[in-house]
Specification:
- The chain folds into 2 domains: 128 residues, no CATH class; 32 residues, no CATH class.
- Helix content is 62%, strand content 4%.
- It has 6 helices and 2 strands; from the N terminus they run ααααααββ.
- A two-stranded antiparallel ribbon has the order 1-2.
- Helix 1 crosses helix 2 and helix 1 runs antiparallel to helix 3.
- The longest helix has 36 residues.
Length: 165
């Protein structure tokens, strides 16, 4: 395998990772609301929700401060090192992934879209409250060293919580 082929392969991998990241942000919000109405327990998972809002927060901050996404930068650099003309000499999948992910609009338009999406995520935290992780709800009685778990009255899943109470 030539070095240019390695760079092209790495560029493809970065593109797929970038697409997965964007999919996680967009589909994650949809799944949160669908899961809320269908009582899917994972949509209340604290770590899923924290990673989701953190990912969108990074996107919003990049847009507000005019920072180009590092994944985009890496992909372009790897394509150039691979001898490719960036975004002209593409495979079928590259073409469609780029078509889906990248739009030609003014920066302020992206800032507004990302701001609205981030607001929707914050609202989902209020309306579809995530379960607090065990380390936040655990209380240890100093005298008996017994662990007591607090329950969230707003969380319908606490009735079926297998943890000791």
């Amino acid at each position: 395998m030539e070095s240019q082929d390695v760079y092209r392969l790495l560029a493809h991998i970065v593109l797929v990772i970038h697409f997965a990241f964007v999919s996680f942000v967009v589909v994650g919000l949809l799944l949160t609301w669908i899961g809320y109405f269908l009582n899917w327990s994972f949509v209340r998972n604290f770590y899923f929700r924290a990673a989701h809002i953190l990912a969108m927060g990074v996107v919003l901050l990049e847009a507000l401060f005019g920072i180009v996404c590092p994944l985009t930068t890496w992909e372009i650099q790897l394509r150039k090192l691979g001898g490719q003309v960036v975004y002209e000499d593409q495979t079928f999948m590259q073409y469609w992934i780029h078509k889906i992910m990248f739009f030609q609009m003014e920066q302020v338009t992206f800032q507004l879209i990302y701001g609205c999406f981030f607001t929707a995520l914050l609202l989902s935290f209020f309306f579809v409250r995530p379960r607090a992780p065990g380390w936040l709800t655990r209380k240890i009685d100093a005298g008996t060293e017994e662990t007591e778990y607090a329950t969230n009255k707003d969380n319908p899943e606490t009735e079926n919580d297998p943890r000791p109470s």
